C-alpha cells in the first residue's frame, strides 16, 4: 500500500473522529455551563421566594398585633404576648439570614447597603411594638413609615433576586458589607428620615427605635 493511500485513509478516519470528539467536548462544556447556570438560577429563586415569605409573614403578624392590642375586647394574656414575641424574633432571624446571603453574594453600592439597613430597622419595629404592647402605628397608606417600608421592601426584593446571578464579592468586602448593614446608625436614620409628625401628633414609632437601640446590632 502506497504512502499516499495510507495518508488518505488516515485522513478519512481521523477527520470524523476529531469532529465527533470536538463536538462531544464542546457539547459537554455547554451542558455543564447550562446546568451550572440553571442551579444558580434555582438558588436565586429560592432566596427570592424566602424573601417574599418573610414579607408576607411580617404583614400577617402585624395584622395579628393590631387585633391583639387594638381590636380585641379583652386584655392580651402574657402567653399571647409571648407567642407574638416569639413569632417576631423568628421573623427577624429569617430576615437576618437573607441579609447575610445578600451581603455575602452581591456587590453592594452604598445606597443599597442603606436600603438593607433601613429595611432591617423597619422589621425590628414590629418586635419593639410588641414589647411596648401597642400597635405598630402605621395608620394609613400615606403614613411615612409605612410608605418607606413598602419602598424599601421592593428595593430589597430586587437585591435578593441578584443572589446567585452574579459574581460574589471577596470575603473581606462581604464582611464589611454585612457589618455596615447591621450598624446601629440605621435606627437613628429611620427616626430622622421617616418617623415624622403626622396630623399634628408625633408618630408612636418615633420612640420605639430609641427604646431598643442596643438590640439593633
Provide key terms for this protein.
disordered C terminus; 7 helices
Give the class from helix and strand content and strand pairing. Answer: mainly alpha
Mean pLDDT: 82
The counted number of beta strands is 0
Low-confidence stretches: 197-217
What overall geometry do the principal axes of the alpha carbons give? elongated
Order of helices and strands: HHHHHHH
Structure description:
The chain has helices at residues 3-71, 78-105, 110-131, 144-160, 171-181, 185-193, 208-211. With 217 residues, it is mostly helical. The chain has one domain. The longest helix has 69 residues, at 3-71.
Describe the SSE topology:
Blueprint: H1 3-71, H2 78-105, H3 110-131, H4 144-160, H5 171-181, H6 185-193, H7 208-211
Helix pairs in contact: 1-2, 2-3, 2-5, 3-4, 3-6
Short description:
With 217 residues, the protein is mostly helical. 74% of the residues lie in helices and 0% in strands. It has helices at residues 3-71, 78-105, 110-131, 144-160, 171-181, 185-193, 208-211.
Amino acid at each position: 500500500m502506497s504512502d499516499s493511500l495510507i495518508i488518505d485513509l488516515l485522513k478519512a478516519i481521523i477527520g470524523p473522529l476529531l469532529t465527533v470528539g470536538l463536538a462531544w467536548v464542546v457539547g459537554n462544556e455547554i451542558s455543564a455551563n447550562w446546568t451550572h447556570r440553571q442551579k444558580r438560577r434555582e438558588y436565586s429563586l429560592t432566596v427570592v421566594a424566602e424573601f417574599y415569605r418573610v414579607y408576607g409573614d411580617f404583614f400577617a403578624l402585624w395584622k395579628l398585633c393590631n387585633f391583639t392590642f387594638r381590636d380585641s375586647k379583652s386584655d392580651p394574656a402574657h402567653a399571647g404576648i409571648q407567642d407574638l414575641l416569639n413569632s417576631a424574633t423568628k421573623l427577624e432571624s429569617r430576615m437576618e439570614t437573607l441579609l447575610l446571603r445578600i451581603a455575602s453574594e452581591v456587590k453592594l453600592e452604598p445606597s443599597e447597603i442603606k436600603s438593607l439597613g433601613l429595611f432591617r430597622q423597619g422589621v425590628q419595629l414590629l418586635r419593639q411594638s410588641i414589647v411596648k404592647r401597642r400597635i405598630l402605628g402605621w395608620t394609613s397608606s400615606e403614613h411615612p413609615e409605612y410608605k418607606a417600608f413598602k419602598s424599601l421592601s421592593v428595593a430589597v426584593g430586587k437585591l435578593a433576586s441578584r443572589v446567585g446571578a452574579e459574581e460574589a464579592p471577596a470575603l473581606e468586602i462581604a464582611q464589611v458589607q454585612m457589618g455596615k448593614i447591621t450598624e446601629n446608625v440605621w435606627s437613628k436614620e429611620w427616626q430622622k428620615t421617616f418617623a415624622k409628625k403626622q396630623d399634628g401628633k408625633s408618630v408612636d414609632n418615633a420612640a420605639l427605635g430609641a427604646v431598643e437601640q442596643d438590640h439593633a446590632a
